[in-house]
Amino acid sequence: MKRLEEVNFFVKLAAAFAVTLAAWLAPDWRFGVPLALLAVLFLKLAQVPGVRAYVKGATLLVLLVMASWIVNLLVQGLALTEAVPVATGMAARLVTTTAAFFFIMETSSPGSILAAASAARLPPAVTLVLSLTFGLIPMLREEFERIADAQRARGMEIDNVPFPVRLRFALARGVPLLVQAVRMAHAISLSLSIYGFDMSRKRTTWRSVGLMVEPRLTAEKEPR
To answer: What is the separation of C-alpha 16 from the centre of its chain, rounded to a whole number of angstroms?
Structure first.
């Protein structure tokens, strides 16, 4: 796991795009389902943090996607035997996509993203967008879990309840999560202003960035 965290962010991003592209270019569910299972198995074998929570979310995603697509295709006139494979393939592609980018988010710290983007001499706006996109989502997920713990502390049973009730409670967390996201965005923008972030100013990196991202630059010995 430690070595995966040190892999260059753009290498992991390219690998995720390659896996996603393979999933979406092969629409047949007989290819998509094994690829999705392999993606989830890779997360498990790599010991990526939060895999159990991801599997729960992916299961919910599969159920919602399949139900909505089957109903939609039946309304359009397709037979059930034709609608189920199409819905299964769509759900499998979404699982593969989310697993690939879940791996990036859980193995890339904001510092490693900033170091890789700075070493690549990307524009400040692109660097900021990448670091915020892949850095804020894990923070929002943790906030989502804290909201659930607050619901439990207030006596709301959200675990041993029927699935529709659990789904309704999960959707109810969206409003406080949105409020917290706005507050977080305001705090980040205020911090950037205080530290003098300038879109036109180029930055350097404090890490040695290649295929792997080293924690610090190594000091070279002076020749005698």
So the answer is: 11
Q: Is the pTM of this model over 0.90?
A: no
- Chain-centroid distance of CA 173 in Å reads 19
Split at pLDDT 50, 70, 90, the class of 192 is low
Q: How far apart are CA 105 and CA 99, in angstroms?
A: 10
What is the spatial distance between Cα 66 and Cα 92, in angstroms, rounded to a whole number? Answer: 10
Q: Which pair of structure tokens corresponds to residue 5? A: 């965290």
Cβ-contact 70, 83 below 8 angstroms? yes
* 32's tokens: 């998509």
> For 135-187, what is each residue's pLDDT tens digit?
777 777 777 778 878 877 877 766 677 767 766 776 777 777 777 777 777 77
